[in-house]
Amino acid sequence: MSLFRIYGAVVLSMIFWSFSFIWFKEANIFFKPITIVFLRLVAAVSILSTYLFLTGRFVKIKKEDRKLFFLLALFEPFFYFLGESHGLTYVSSTTGSVIISTIPVIATIGAWAFFRERLRLLNYAGIILSFLGIIAFVINRDGSLTFSSVGLALLGLAVISAVGYNLVLSRLVGNYSPVYIVNVQNVIGAVLFLPVFLITDLKDFQPGLINIRSLLPIIELSVFASCGAFILFAFSVRHMGISKANVFTNCIPVFTALFSFILLNEKLTFQQIAGMFIVITGLFLSQTDGHKKDLDEASILTGKTA
């Protein structure tokens, strides 16, 4: 297998996930957050179900795993998207990507707390450094918050949900393919979001706004972020291993900041740039000589199906 194809695939998947924060901002001009999420899930389910059908990869879910799949979907996409989609309406796309990028750090803490997974001193240093970077990123010199506390709290909900997702997912990854797991959780997620959409957003949903310009960012989210990026990343993991592939995910906030600057005219202060790189450095350290194999496989999906 050509190294160009392998590394090209992983870099392209990072670019797609970086753009997801920008595409959401563009979609939010026309639609409310729940509408965006619901339409995105329906589109992603259609694409992945077609793929699974054509490749003959549908399998029967074991009876004892049904509750786990429901709990999985409850964490992500339901709680995760509730936090992320609403959080991004209060903060910039770059800020959102930086907060979401701490998921591996919090997941490492969760693995230690629930599975008593042993960590190296370097991992602990990375965890502490990441949190210091977040503080530097979101707090002004006078101690006030640079960004909306509501937005940060909602993104915090997304991060916590992703950690719960990680812990449940570790029970399923050995029995089902990653694409199948993503599709099932998206199907359940779409069902969970349907009544929320009908209650909160349907009254404001204007069919007249539906055109290629308004639907394009949702299509991009579904095709490239929810499906394409995941498949490319899974391909890369298969050929380079989870540890090497996961290193690239730490670059998502950098890509998002760059693309947001170019496309959305978002600005960053020197303090925020410094904070972002402190977070990324901490992420590298926290994942050094990382986790058990089953948790590594679970981390392939955590926070990336968004």
Written description of the protein model:
- There is one protein chain.
- The protein is mostly helical.
- The protein has one domain (3-299).
- It has 13 helices and no strands.
- Helix 1 crosses helix 4 (93-100), helix 1 (3-27) packs across helix 11 and helix 3 runs antiparallel to helix 7.
- It is globular and about 50 Å long.
Outline the secondary-structure elements:
Elements: H1 3-27, H2 33-55, H3 66-87, H4 93-100, H5 103-115, H6 121-138, H7 149-169, H8 178-200, H9 212-240, H10 242-249, H11 252-263, H12 270-286, H13 293-299
Brief summary:
The protein has one domain (3-299). The protein is built from 13 helices and no strands.
Global morphology? globular
Got a strand count?
0
Q: How many discrete structural domains?
A: 1
Please, what is the average pLDDT?
A: 86
The residue fraction in helices comes out at: over 70%
Please summarize the sheet with the most strands.
none
Q: Uncertain regions: pLDDT < 50 for 5+ in a row? A: none
Bin the strand percentage.
under 5%
End-to-end span in angstroms? 28 Å
Structure classification:
mainly alpha
User: How many whole angstroms does the radius of gyration measure?
Assistant: 19 Å
Instruction: Please provide the ordered H/E string of secondary-structure elements.
Output: HHHHHHHHHHHHH
Number of helices: 13
